Amino acid sequence: MSTPRHVYLVDGSGFIFRAFHGLPMMTRADGTPVNAVYGFTTMMMKLLNETDADHVAVIFDAARKTFRSDIYPAYKANRPPAPEELVPQFPLIREATRAFNVPAVEQEGFEADDLIATYATQAVALGARVTIVSSDKDLMQLVGDGVEMMDPLKGRAIAAEQVVEKFGVPPDKVVDVQSLCGDSTDNVPGVPGIGIKTAAQLITEYGDLDTLLARAAEIKQPKRRETLMTNADMARVSRELVRLKRDVPVVEPLESFAKRQPAPELLAEFVREQGFKSLSARLGGGGATMPKIPAPKSATSALPPTAAMAPAAAPDKIEYELVTSVASLDAWVAEATRAGIVAIDTETTGLDALRAELVGVSLSTAPGRACYIPVKHSPAEAQGSLLLSDPGAPESPKILPRDVVLEKLRPLCADPSVLKVGHNIKYDLHILNRAGLEVAPIDDTMLLSYVLDGASHGHGMDELAQRHLGHSTIKFADVCGSGKAQITFDRVPLDKALAYAAEDADITLRLHALLKGRLLAEHMVTVYETLERPLATIVAAMEREGIKVDSPALLALSEEFGARMAELEKDIHALAGHEFNVASPAQLGKVLFEEMALPGGKKTKTGQWATGADALEELALQGHALPARLLDWRQLAKLKSTYADALVAQINPDTRRVHTSYSLAVTTTGRLSSSDPNLQNIPIRTEEGRKIRAAFVPEPGNVLLSADYSQIELRLVAHVAGIEGLKQAFRDGADIHAITASQVFGVPIEGMDPSLRRRAKAINFGVIYGISAFGLAQQLGISNGEAKTFIDAYFARFPEIRDYMERAKQEARDNGFVTTLFGRKVYVPDINAKGPLRAFGERAAINGPIQGGAADIIKRAMIRLPGEIAAAGSKARMLLQVHDELVFEVPEAEIADTTALVKRVMEGAAQLDVPLVVEVGTGASWDAAH
After folding, report:
1. How far apart are CA 919 and CA 402, in angstroms?
2. What is the pTM of this model?
3. Mean pLDDT of 463-480
């Protein structure tokens, strides 16, 4: 305890967010994010080495709710929750502070800024000098009278001169200016229409806020005068919100901040636990001298290398072991635990992860070193040459009991200090979960490849092994055969099973070493760590939940669709003048283009007439009845076979629900795709499609809840292209298509011809996909010339869109890809092609950041929702994702709370220049909820 001379007050809460957003994502071996922890640790080392302060403390926010919430309940109400990947770093940063032997101060009911203001006031009263380590503008009101600020990232002082540059007034007038201009980030209302520049002019002219408000009637500008007089009370409330409290009854005395030397062993241990190997090395393994370590200057130097990120190298030898004894299994588990990282792969009896049986597990702990642990191989198949195992092994080894293997693997799978790496690990999570094993933390080489290279190539293990390692893997057909002769893996001889399964784990680990290291160099850490990796477990949980379908309703629909198809066939035969097989393209082509001699017929390379949807739609638009009937028949046939019939067959006999499978690494833009069954292609604008959705129902006592982003792609266009007219319309909650029609065609909204709105809607959506005059003309049934006039008028009114389109195309030409708001690369391979392919590439470049951005936003929401639902104590379950829509099963008693929660999380998934709006509906079926 001593009297301070120079006090350092570190704004811990402010620095956490700057470090988090300023550094690429970093994770420990157990998967815990630590980029903010790293930034904070290096900053503290630098500060403590360079400062002459004799008193130091780090000040944190204790909670969002403070006394200001009582003054104005909406204060900070629009702030989104902290990013999910930042939350686990809060306690680690407090732990880091203690490791430096520095007080970590926080107090319920008050913000960190209030504590800083109080301690600064106390220090100045004692004759001390104060340095506030922060660049937060809200703290600038404290500058002066022995108090200065210091920006820790830029390393520059913030004195009265810099405050005047920022606010146009000296520090003692900052509160008055902020009271007028407000703060949208903290939801401080201020006075509408008054920004910092105007506020500074007014305070300079009138001296202070009270004088200004008392003399507001003297202001010459009518609008400004009226606004100030109307919102005088709100300005006073805003002052109470922005003015820092300098007399908090603090618990920790200022004198207790006396600077103390860090405990070297404690600090070294903390740095080692986080995996900061470069910092650990500079600490000298816990020596007493704390070296000068500068804060990271760039993202590329911020992340220390780890063993998992070392470049992959071909192993000198291959060591694959067949594990058939408890001692051997124990040895492998211990080896994996020591390594802190293990590749894991499962072999099963089939591809359906929710029905297949576990046959064996393979592990790899180092390049070229792996094992296979069989648990279900028939005795007859447990024989073989065992060429790769111990030569002394018995000819017919007895495999370990399944329960013994699972119990031995259980602690390894759950160990938070061991990273489990898989290739398409979502499948393995299902298999191991059904076996009673929870697996975490995880990495996925398929997702790593997808994040790095997008759709520029496939992400199967065989392809990646050949592409990155120059290794040709053993193929599944090599051990199981193909076609009718194919056997299940439990019938594969153990020597062949060992070679195949162990190689899978080995290659996975080697790919991981290569691909994980590229993330940082290619600035893709954030996309992987905050979007793709956490999503794998979320989607796996959704797939396990499945959704209930009404079997009798589907069977009835199948009969109805069949009857209507039969009627349509009669109509088609009557129009053709004779019967023929309507499902036969060859017979149909002959009827349309030879017998009926309809125009526009084209032949394929095989010499048959083209009868695809495009050809039939063009004929239907020309008024020909038979092609129109045929399109209706095909639509019903698809719904009947794909859904009405197939869904019943796809009901899981154990759960009595349908479980779709989501592919995480297929689409160009980052969207998920659905299969077995595909629930993303059910038409929602047709009566028949709605009938299919009506067959998706909740369990008794529940409802289905559908939450759909409203016009998210248009909102992204407005944001990305910076279109002020559209942004303001979205902020106002206006009819965006009517607004567009009004601005483009120069007509008032009141009494607008509906056809104009329809045309504006077609252009609004069409421009995202690079619609041409020909395409718009076909869509609206107008001439090409008229369509071109509309598009030209649209670009004339919103030139920002054309600018954005040109930027996107140029970015694709320069890089081969475009990027979303969140850093995802959307590859555009055809951007430099010739002819029609180039036009296709240009449209993909324009649409990529928009559709990819929408995919990223809903993924961010999906990652946060399960945790929020669990924290609320809700029994609601997230079941489906269909493009911009999420579907939940919710207990009837929780409808209102779940609706509010889902809207809050989804609408807060991203901060754009326009609001995100989510439309929520509930009902006794998916159709009723939509």
Report:
1. 48
2. 0.66
3. 91
